[in-house]
Target: 3-hydroxylacyl-ACP dehydratase
Amino acid sequence: MLSDTLRALIPHAGDMCLIDEVLSWDADGLIARTHSHRRTDNPLRTDGVVAVAHVIEYAGQACALHGGLRARARGAPPSPALLVAASQVELPSNPLSDLADTLEIRVTRLQGSDQDAIYRFEIQDGERRLSSGRLTVMAQRQETA
Model:
């Protein structure tokens, strides 16, 4: 189970925090693991199924963890970010809820600033690649009055 300290880096609460464990991370990327796609109480389930498109949510949460860990390493507070684009997404052929293995999520930061980034993601089910693509995240801009 992901520690409360790391859960705070994901912009969701409770059962919507889908990542179970961070295996490793550095300035360039993060590797995480989860089995939440198999839980019957997974909030993404509709009619008992976690759809293939939800790989984007899993990858987005891994990006949020990575961005938060990078900020913390710089001594800065994590800044909320928005997923603004998903491209070149290769979806799995079966619903995530049908998969028996633990999912491994890898995100690699391709470019960006301390606030914004483009990530490449890959999700594996055991040794088999399920999904890949790119996500663009941007920090939420604070409006000044």
